[in-house]
Amino acid sequence: MFNLILFGPPGSGKGTQSQNILDTYKLHHISTGDLLREEVKKESTLGLEAKKYMDQGLLVPDEVVIGMISGKIDENPEARGFIFDGFPRTTEQASALDKLLEFKGTEIDLMLSLEVPEAELVKRLLHRGVTSGRSDDNEEVITKRIKEYHTKTAVVADHYNTQSKLVNLKGDGDIETTFRLIKKEIDKYLQPA
Ligand code: AMP
Question: How many domains does the chain have?
């Protein structure tokens, strides 16, 4: 099993590159943002609770997100591995993920961190707000999301750096260029399926 964390600030291209990775390597994609948006759409209890935070550009409480992840791993016992996209976003989530995977007899193999300058992130997110209609892609909420990234999420890279699993990649090129960089790293562990 090969487990990858695709890491980086909002707008760094995690969702786009996850699609390229899963097409090439047939890993199972777990995006907590997508899962939460599904719950919001269903108007489930979890979704209604999560929406309060998402609309403000704040992180949803750890226990809500961690509870959701465990089930998704169990639902896919035959997976070749997982891409975690937008998770873990706090050191508490990282510790919980490590424990969860250890319990299942596996672990995180690699964290790829996409580095993109802030001005480019804002430009991309504003563009996405227009094209995808995501309610959290407006200027005020974008600023808060990037702030949450710096105060709570950026430290998660240190967590995996101390485990020698972190690789930083330039993420400000075009989609194909960034994917070539990603592929070069994953190929060290896993062949395309
Ligand atoms: P994303 O699609 O990954 O940008 O996530 C959109 C929003 O969902 C974030 O701004 C958070 O409010 C929430 N969210 C997604 N993933 C997490 C997570 N791992 N922990 C806490 N909140 C999350």
Answer: 1
Ligand 1 pocket member 10 (CB < 6 A): yes
101 domain residue, yes or no = yes
Residue 89 alpha carbon to ligand 1 centre in Å = 8
Does residue 153 lie in a domain region?
Answer: yes
Q: Cα separation of 95 and 152, whole Å?
A: 14
**Whole-structure pTM value:** 0.97
Percentage with pLDDT > 90 across the chain? 92
| Cα(21)–Cα(129) distance, integer angstroms | 24
Angle between helices 14-25 and 175-186 (to 10 degrees): 50
The minimum-distance atom of ligand 1 relative to the CA of 36 is 8
Per-residue pLDDT tens over the stretch 143-159: 999 999 999 999 999 99
129 or 43, higher pLDDT:
43
Q: How far apart are the first and last CA of the chain?
A: 13
Tell me, what CATH number does 125's domain have?
3.40.50.300
Ligand 1 atom with least separation from CA of 148:
10
Q: Which mutation among 40, 89, 141 tests ligand 1's pocket best, with the greatest number of atoms within 8 A of CB?
A: 89
Q: Whose CA is nearest to atom 8 of ligand 1?
A: 33
Which range of residues forms the domain containing residue 113? 2-27+79-186
